[in-house]
Amino acid sequence: MNIIERIKNILLNPKPEWQVIESEKEPHVKVLTNYVLPLALIPAIAAFVGYGLIGYSVFGVKFASISFGVRQAISQYITMVGGVYLTAFVIDLLAPSFQAKKDLNQAFSLVAYAYTPMFIGGIFNILPSLSWLAFLCGLYGLYLLFVGLQPMTQVSAEKRTSYFVVSLVVMIAVSIVLGMILSAILLKGAIGF
Description:
mainly alpha
């Protein structure tokens, strides 16, 4: 798998690319090491540069700190990698409830490649005032997840939407809790608690 070709194809031609991905049946460790870990560096490094070196402005006061940049980078990296695993786990766990195929490797591939817009969009963290654009890229990732759900999990067309919505609600709830825990741990010293 050529990582650049995969990025281009999943972003520009997702439907045929999901068929290719489904046929590969890659173990999740291989997708993790060859795709997720390298691409998760994009938002992490951008967050370090943005918050640690360039800084951000609040009411005209500029803030920039290497330690805060490092914490943001670690938080971004853990959130991206952990988010892929968490989402894949939820999708795999819910599969039997929707008569979908339970296969953690396929669920992981589905999520890893659906995260592509968030990985690439993470470059916007380089300017903290533009970091909200990374969120918009994540919305396209939800579309990719929806499109890939049927070929990757073999869920029926009738159950695909409900499977997607239930998975999304569970993921959002768990992500909020995970984000609060990470913020409490990593950002505690940076904001003076």
